[in-house]
Amino acid sequence: MSTTRQSPAGDCGPEAEEVVTSIEASLREVREVRELRQVRRLKLVGASGTVQRSRDFTREALEDWGWMPAASADRREAVEDALLVVSELVTNACLHAGGPQELRIGRGARTLRVEVTDDGGGKPSPRTPHQAGRPGGHGMFIVQRLCREWGVEPDPGGSGKTVWAELPAPV
């Protein structure tokens, strides 16, 4: 006599559903990264004026990729959003992680991906509750509001991390 009940046909249990959901999310991420048609890198270790340098680098990439000059209000907003997200991520690395190591900008068919690597161990997050009237503490709130997704990936080597954000490409 068995002490386990038989599951209905096709029922793999809740653990299998979690695994499938996790696999589906991973496949979406892999597809999106594969869709990046071009990636540009800017080394920032020891550089001065990293925020302005990063914005200039991003602006040049967006010009080369046809985002600029912006022919419509939507395209102008997309460019401004991308430059603001770059500024916020690089500034966060300057203020909280000893400075950025590298900026990567990736272009996909429907996505612009911004990545900033640093040696910091912290994990950025929007301040809660968000207090709009107070100075400071708005960077990750802004990133969260402007981007489709954002996240933090620890460096596999154990020191540092990459903070990434994905914005929709203008139509």
From TrEMBL:
The Histidine kinase/HSP90-like ATPase domain covers which part of the protein? 55-164
User: Isomerase among the record's keywords?
Assistant: no
Query: Which GO molecular-function terms appear in the entry?
Result: ATP binding; protein serine/threonine kinase activity
Sorted alphabetically, the keyword list is: ATP-binding, Kinase, Nucleotide-binding, Serine/threonine-protein kinase, Transferase
> What InterPro entries would the database entry show?
Anti-sigma-factor_SerPK, HATPase_C_sf, HATPase_dom
Question: Which residues are listed as membrane-spanning?
Answer: none
Q: What are the boundaries of the region Disordered?
A: 116-138
The record's section on PANTHER family has: ANTI-SIGMA-F FACTOR RSBW, ANTI-SIGMA-F FACTOR RSBW-RELATED
Name of the protein in its database record: ATP-binding protein
Source organism per UniProt: Streptomyces tardus
